[in-house]
Amino acid sequence: MKLLIKLGGTLLDSASSRDDLARQIARVAAQQQVVVVHGGGKQMTRFLAERGIESRFVNGLRVTTPETMDAVIKVFAGSVNHELVASLIRAGAAAVGITGIDACLAEAEQMDPELGSVGRVVRSNPAILDLLAGNGYLPVVACVAGDRQGNTYNVNADQMAVACAAGFGAARLIFLTDVPGVMDGEKRVCPVLSMAQSEALIADGIATGGMQAKLNAANAALRQGVAQVCIAPGSGEQVLERILSGEPVGTRLVAHEAAVR
What we know:
This protein has 261 residues and is of the alpha/beta class. The protein has one domain (2-178, 235-247): Acetylglutamate kinase-like (Carbamate kinase), CATH 3.40.1160.10. It has helices at 15-29, 41-50, 66-90, 127-133, 157-168, 195-203, 209-223, 239-244, and strands at 2-7, 33-38, 57-58, 61-62, 95-99, 106-110, 119-124, 138-142, 144-146, 152-154, 172-177, 192-194, 228-233, 251-254. It is globular, with a radius of gyration of 17 Å. The two termini are 26 Å apart. The model has no long low-confidence stretch (mean pLDDT 93).
């Protein structure tokens, strides 16, 4: 089975959390083909603040000026990616750090001039993922994309995960986050959500910001043929093993409401 795991940047901010997840991922990658996509928003915000640059968001997406784009490459494709790769190698995985720019893995276009260099992935070319994962390597993808004209884009990591999962033919997409799952209006974790139900949470203003972006990404994955999507807390003990064994952890996203029952 092919599996894509998306790691939120908050989970990677401490060495202990990063190493724990790396050990879990390495065990899974020894048995099946795995691709990892990671964020780094917390690290990015801190990097910019240290340089006196304010972070601004529109609908959960970071407005990306030329100055911010330079930081995106330094942080996402640089420090965050390489620290994670190092942890995975220490855990025994043959990890390889790449971005969406490499081998045109994720071709993007500008999403909205108001957002600057924020990209929307329009085409995924998964040959590099197939080549690496099919030969025992573990691709670790930073959420930076490009186009055929040499432009670079900051891509929401959840959207990058969807593009890679669909192109790679992943059967499962797991979002590991810093929250217990998707909350309803009473602040309770929803164990299962259909696409219609998750869209209602957004329309009702319950799921906003980063969770809104995550639900939109999960629904896009389901529409593109990914069979199972899960949003779960990455800090949970042996969370990957529990999810893959079928234990109800976090929120499972399904295409149709009939599957919720």
